[in-house]
Design goal:
Elements: H1 3-10, H2 14-22, H3 30-39, H4 45-58, H5 75-81, E1 84-89, H6 100-109, H7 116-128, E2 139-145, H8 146-150, H9 156-170, E3 176-181, E4 195-199, E5 207-211, E6 216-219, H10 222-238, H11 242-255
Protein name: Transcriptional regulator with XRE-family HTH domain
Pfam families: DUF5753, HTH_31
InterPro entries: Cro/C1-type_HTH, DUF5753
């Protein structure tokens, strides 16, 4: 196949495929290499695994590999490479917006970690948040269900977490948009499912991430991705605007 033929069958741009083949992309995604193996009919299990292991090793210098006991799969790698991150959370504050106290509280609630392990989870998640202040920071669009905020109670945990959300929302140096979806909005298309939609540059197709208690599910089919993109747009429309969200969060502190 020519580059043009292969790119057409993969529904990629010619540049995206060319950058992988010439080595311009030093750390290709596992999903991209799997797609190439399928296209080129590499079916031998040992050969496939050898190539995929090389791909994994190419990404091993990333900071999150030191926290493979905390993160499931390669989600931080996708997140770090994304140009735009759209996330909806029905019961928790999104990971990129959590305070250390909140991280500690929800980690303890899982009954999985204790002692030093909890601090390790805190360190890993705070490290993950550094992408929001990096030179090539992604645009983050977060919709938080009101239920997640109500679960904070009315003590110090709530005050610290809400103050942090306000600080991030008011920071003109980042590309973060926060919206609250009130319970009073009634039934909405989001239901009970949290999801993260990640868009990359033109070389990489978008991915939807669905987290589970043991691992994560990645959706890459164009139809499935478009369904979640429409879903997120509808959730945004049902939620408070960013300005009204800011007022809502500040009012939470007043009522405390």
């Amino acid at each position: 196949m020519t580059v043009e033929q292969a790119a057409e069958r993969l529904e990629w741009s010619r540049a995206r495929l060319g950058h992988i083949e010439t080595g311009r992309r030093k750390k290709p995604l596992i999903t991209d290499i799997k797609a190439l193996l399928d296209l080129y009919k590499v079916t031998d299990p040992r050969e496939r695994e050898a190539i995929l292991n090389l791909t994994r090793q190419a990404r091993e210098t990333a900071w999150w590999t030191s926290y493979d006991d905390v993160f499931t799969g390669r989600f931080p790698g996708f997140e770090a490479a994304a140009a735009t991150i759209s996330t909806y959370e029905p019961s928790l504050i999104p990971g990129l917006l959590q305070t250390s106290e909140y991280i500690a509280a929800i980690t303890k609630a899982t009954l999985i970690y204790s002692g030093d392990d909890i601090q390790r989870v805190i360190d890993a998640r705070l490290k993950r948040q550094e992408i929001l202040t990096s030179p090539d920071q992604p645009e983050l669009r977060a919709v938080i269900d009101e239920a997640a905020l109500l679960r904070l109670g009315d003590g110090q945990l709530m005050a610290g977490q809400v103050q942090h959300l306000i600080k991030v929302a008011e920071d003109t140096g980042n590309s973060v948009t926060i919206q609250v979806l009130e319970i009073g909005a009634g039934l909405h298309p989001g239901g009970e499912s949290a999801f993260v939609l990640m868009d990359f540059d033109e070389e990489t197709s978008p991915v939807v991430y669905l987290e589970t208690s043991t691992d994560g599910l990645y959706l890459e089919d164009a139809g499935e991705v478009e369904r979640y993109r429409k879903l997120f747009r509808n959730i945004q429309e049902a939620a408070l605007t960013p300005d009204r969200t800011l007022a809502y969060l500040k009012n939470m502190l007043v009522k405390r």
